[in-house]
Amino acid sequence: MLKQCEDTVMIELKQMSDLTGFIRTHRLSGEDLREIQLQDKDLREVVNNYNVLVSEKKQVKLIKPATEEEGLISIDNLLDDLAYGYEAIENKPVKFTPMSGAASRMFGFLESYYQNASDDDNEKVNTFIKGLDERQPGPHFSFVRELKDVLKRDNLNLSKLVDEKKYKTIISYVLNENGLNYRNKPKALIPFHVQNGRAILALEAQMEEALRYGNGNLFITILHEHQDQFIQAIEKIKKENNELSQVYIHISEQYNSTNTIAIDPATKEIVRNNDGKISFFPAGHGALIKNLPNNGPSILRNVDNVTSDEIRKQVIDKYHKAFSVYLSQIKTKVSTILTRLDADSISETDLRDQMFALQKQGFQLIIDNDSFSNAPFDEMKRIARIALNRPIKIVGVVKNQGEPGGGPFIIEYGDYRIISIVEKDEIPLEQKSLMEKGKYFNPVDILADPVDYKGNFFDLTEFINKSRYFIVSRRFLGKEVKRMEHPGLWNGTMDGWNSIYVVMPNETFAPVKEVNDLLRLEHQ
Description:
The chain is of the alpha/beta class and 524 residues long. Helix content is 35%, strand content 17%.
């Protein structure tokens, strides 16, 4: 006991010495230390951020792509009567949708054309203009009427501008404050569809989905500077669509404590703003794990993955409700095993059989089955408890059709092998050919349950694979800086969760990465 106390004291003294050395090396002032506190951060976190930025990035080691023969199950395996058990589920899922993303990327090619309007044969621009011209056969954009209104205000006519090929004028009214101002709006507040003659924002489509799950709770994360825009949009939607007045929207912002520092890649000095204060930056969607609803399961999808009304109804009524019933069944079995372990009322044979039965159902446990099977019974119980008492996620994947993003692979995770969504930026160059063999893609279609078998919310930070952070280069005050982003929300942040990976039909995935994607059939 005395030796343990001495070791603890020595560790604390070493940490204090390291912090003191860091303060001296980087000439941190009292004002700097107060600024760190204002960010709800500890100096140790800043030191850890810095050490990550100056160290060599550990890359993910792929073992093989996940397939339906190994690791993935087909949605067809879940559909037999599962959706019909949804009404009996006591704790129905809420929706959790990050909405801090700006629409600017959607309009990137228009921005480029607007700044350098020299190429009248720009194919993307021509497609965009055609989508605005209602004299031509569709498809058309849902914001045409709104665009016509702002042009009419300034005595301009859309059809005439199209005929005269004054594309730059049209685009200026789409992007700029004197028009639709889409350059400065969040993607959630861009009209995606038309229903009953009304333009429907991506936000409204998400609200409709939340209501369809049965409890009408929608949790969203936004940027502080967008709060007024969202409040006004929500009020307008509820006024125009009375059915959605029943939707309760929970708004949160990314926590300051998740922001990270940046360094100058040449000098390794901490980046400061024009006032000489340490600059802190948002650190990727992995930071949103702290915003995940803590009262039950959540359906997590990207804000732009909202198909036409009929397809969305099918996604929820057929697929997501099946997800929920399957999760309920799996969780009941997990809870039963853990409760019997607590009561010491399960036999060795029964424990082994039930653990393997779960895995045969597609439930991916973080476990070494050989070590588990060959262990003495007391050790077997310990292994089972650690393996089972984790958050659970059901992850939908689709066949890869060339969309940018990650996919499901079997990877090394400490002493184990797990399935995880891996991005191309996380692997060494020599494994690029192996990644290209992956047949499935991550559309971000996840049912996440962060509650344990006793009804308590897990500390989700304990299940993050912290080695899977990202190092990114960004422009700041006219120069390149090096920043750290947390492991992705559906990547390393959830590596420590137990999982079921389900192959979904591709029509359930209709992202809007560029505005012209709204002309696809799924959005008409």
